[in-house]
Amino acid sequence: MRRGVGIQAVHNQTQTQKQLQNVSDQISTENINKIKEQLVIFKENLEQFAIKHKKDITKNPEFRKYFQDMCNMIGVDPLASNKGFWSQVLGVGDFYYTLGVQIIEICLKYRGSNGGLMEMNILADHLRKLRGKNSQEISLDDIETSISKLKVLGNGFNIIKVNKKKLVQSVPCELNKDHTDIIILAQENNSSITESQISQKLKWNNHRINSVLNFLLQESMVWIDDQSTETIYWFPSLWSE
Amino acid sequence: MNSSESFQFPLYYNKEPFFTIQPIINTRKIQLQMWQDLILAYSRSNKIYELDLNESIKTNLNLFNNEKINRKLSRDSLKIIFDDIIENGYAEWIDKEKNRVLIMWRKPEEWASLIYKWVSDCGFLNTVLTIWEIQNGDDSKKQDFHQLNTTILLKSLKVLEKQSKAQTFSSDDEGNLGVKFFSI
Fold first, then answer.
1. Nearest CA to B166 among B123, B122, B132, B115?
2. Of A36, A112, A121, B2, which alpha carbon lies 20 to 30 A from A20's?
């Protein structure tokens, strides 16, 4: 196309651009509408699914986990509100809030004797005892979901992964990698550890070992036992009962 | 003191560090509370009112010596634990050497109200009973205070005297000491 000169040419050019813009807008709107339509259909289906399987969702912890995952994938959070459609249909909002309160209750009760660290299976046992036989069965995933909801209350609750086990931390202190390394080591070693075991396995110098152990002692996460050839440091939180 | 087979030890009795007094004050507080709970429950289950600490170490009393995990309390640890229990009002030193200890798994105030309830339930108000009858009489056989240690019983009666619910009559022989309970 020959490049036009003069005022008319400029005018023509803007005109063309405007028309192109219009067409593109139109296409975008159509696309968005289509997606919106699809989403509405999907949401309806999901709601119908939820209503249909309400019993399974509330009763079966495994099924609940899958449903929760599916909802998370499309950005729907059935737990986000206590008043929304989801909690009304499923009552899941209440379920996790109640569980959250029970988790806090148990963690506080045992904070003194375990330093605010509790192995998740032990927490689950305590929860089942507290909730009684006739309540809904709970899974470790439920506990994790519940704790993630507790995070809005501040950084008091945290889940530390220690190899295959998970520890629920209910005190707001920062555990760094050195601390968790020792917890992992202790967990593999019958929930106890000595200084020489640490230096042998992790090749740390004495200063580093002492500073980590002292921190854990101060936080009541570790108890000492001096009736052996070497002082043994025990983690009450790792004891299986 | 071999009747302890029936006593159910708590789980923490099988944890090694429980037998080492913890250096960190917060942890120690919890540990001492756990020891108090255990000692009082054990004494209650075995009806122990007096303990000779040196003797209990010498005879390896299982309460302070867990052979299964090869851990035991030292004499110094025992002293720390009982000092704490005494501070909480559940025990008293009997001798100046702080070796023999009086264990009150119920405080005299609690015994006092139990005894007073029993007396009024049995219709003994306004009559005179002897200490011996309270401790060994047929009427008290089913009561927790049957065979109650005399020192603790006298402490409990003192509590009732202070509340004007009883009056003791002195006697040369402790067993013949009389006590009259009043209705209020």
1. B115
2. A36
Of A220, A239, A241, the CB nearest to B27: A220
- Give the global pTM: 0.70
CB-closest option in B11, B22, B72 to A223: B22
- Using one digit for the tens of pLDDT, what is the confidence trace for B60-102? 999 999 999 999 999 999 999 999 999 999 999 999 989 999 9
Q: Residue B1 above 60 pLDDT?
A: no
Chain A residues in contact with B22 by the CB 8 A cut-off are 223-224
Rounded Cα–Cα distance for residues A93 and A77 (Å): 10
ipTM over 0.90: no
> By CB neighbour count within 10 A (0-12 exposed, 13-18 middle, 19+ buried), where does A3 fall?
exposed
Q: Is B20 in CB contact (< 8 Å) with chain A? A: yes
The full set of domains in chain B, from first to last, is: 3-103 (1.10.10.570), 108-181 (1.10.10.10)
Q: A residues 127-146 near B, CB within 8 Å?
A: none
> Among A31-40, A42-51, B33-42, B139-148, which range has the highest average pLDDT?
B33-42
Compute CA distances B178 → A56, A92, A150, B129, B166, whole Å: 71, 67, 63, 6, 10
Write out the two tokens for A168. 């629920």
Domain residue spans of chain A: 30-157, 173-241
Task: Tell me how close the Cα of A238 comes to any Cα of chain B, in angstroms.
Answer: 12
Of the candidates A144, A136, A141, A127, the one whose C-alpha atom is nearest the C-alpha of residue A59 is: A136
Q: A236 and B15: CB-CB below 8 Å?
A: yes
- Cβ separation of B19 and A241 shorter than 8 Å? no
Q: List CB contacts of B163: < 8 A, sequence separation 6 or more.
A: B112
Cβ of residue B75 closer than 8 Å to a chain A Cβ: no
In this predicted structure, what is the pLDDT of residue A57? 75
For domain A173-241, which CATH number applies: 2.60.40.3140, 1.10.10.10, 3.20.20.300, 3.40.50.300? 1.10.10.10
Task: Tell me which chain B residues have a C-beta less than 8 angstroms from the C-beta of A217.
Answer: 23-24, 27
Which CATH number describes the domain made up of A30-157? 1.10.10.10
Q: Same CATH topology for A30-157 and A173-241?
A: yes
Mean pLDDT comparison of A4-8, B38-42, B95-99, highest-scoring range? B38-42
A171 interface with B at CB cutoff 8 Å:
no
